[in-house]
Design brief:
This protein has helices spanning 6-12, 22-32, 35-58, 68-72, 93-98, 113-131, 134-143, 145-157, 171-188, 217-224, 228-234, and strands spanning 208-210, 215-216, 242-243, 248-250. With 251 residues, it is mainly alpha-helical. The chain starts with 5 loop residues before the first helix and ends with a strand.
């Protein structure tokens, strides 16, 4: 592994089993036909992916998990769904609160990359402990534990297998793991799909800094010596142009 190359590190950590599903190829084709979309997504990922991979490694999780924001939000920290899910990990308000993400007029922790990443990985670990397989844990992350448990109960009643591929799940959840595996295959060998990945260094892109007083966002960006656009991308949780004292920020 090249020490400077984050993509190589991610490839070396792939550990999820493959899925015998035509849906994987369908999603591969979708991404391959949209090189500009993939380019924008990986450009955004450049800011956050090292931090996420560090946390995934620290928890000894498959590195595919670090790619999950690609299918959740295309690594857009401002992503907001019709069902009110927000941030790169697309947390619903109630689930975000359950995993420690403050949400108020000033601040939405679901958009905070550090807070949301830690919450998402805590949740995924809990789901993996519950279901024992990463594909089932991911399905539950998408549709909730109850959805997977009910699908398994229906299959048990009919004496059918209870693995991910055998369950009758919502369309979005049936596509969820195939979509992640499609992304995995593209990251593993982008040239196979006529795509090229932007280089990402295997080193921190940001550092967390705690403020000692309320601060104007423009001033904070100037002090960090970066553009307002980049500062906002690194600190997307603020709802107002003021940083509150008790929220840590990154630069």
């Amino acid at each position: 592994m090249a020490a400077h190359d984050l993509w190589s590190r991610i490839r070396n950590g792939f550990a999820m089993r493959e899925l015998d599903s035509k849906l994987v190829a369908r999603h591969e084709k979708w991404y391959a036909e949209r090189p500009e979309y993939v380019s924008r997504m990986t450009e955004r990922a450049r800011l956050y992916l090292f931090y996420i991979m560090e946390e995934v490694d620290r928890r000894d999780m498959p590195s595919e998990i670090a790619l999950l924001p690609m299918i959740e939000s295309a690594f857009n920290p401002g992503a907001y769904s019709r069902s009110r899910a927000s941030g790169i990990w697309q947390f619903m308000p109630s689930t975000g609160k359950k995993f420690g993400m403050q949400q108020n007029w000033w601040y939405d922790g679901r958009r905070d990359v550090i807070s949301a990443t830690n919450g998402a990985l805590d949740y995924l670990q809990k789901l993996h402990d519950m279901f024992g397989e990463w594909d089932l844990a991911l399905a539950a992350y998408n549709c909730g534990e109850g959805g997977v448990l009910r699908a398994q109960a229906r299959n048990r009643k009919r004496h059918l297998p209870t693995d991910y591929a055998s369950l009758k799940l919502l369309k979005e959840t049936r596509n969820y793991v195939p979509k992640l595996l499609a992304i995995k295959h593209i990251i593993a060998n982008p040239a196979n799909f006529g795509l090229a990945l932007q280089d990402i260094s295997n080193e921190p892109y940001f550092a967390a800094v705690a403020t000692t007083k309320h601060m104007d966002v423009k001033l904070a960006a100037q002090l960090a010596d970066i553009s307002l656009e980049e500062f906002t991308a690194l600190n997307p949780a603020h709802n107002r142009p003021v940083i509150l004292q008790d929220n840590g920020d990154v630069d």
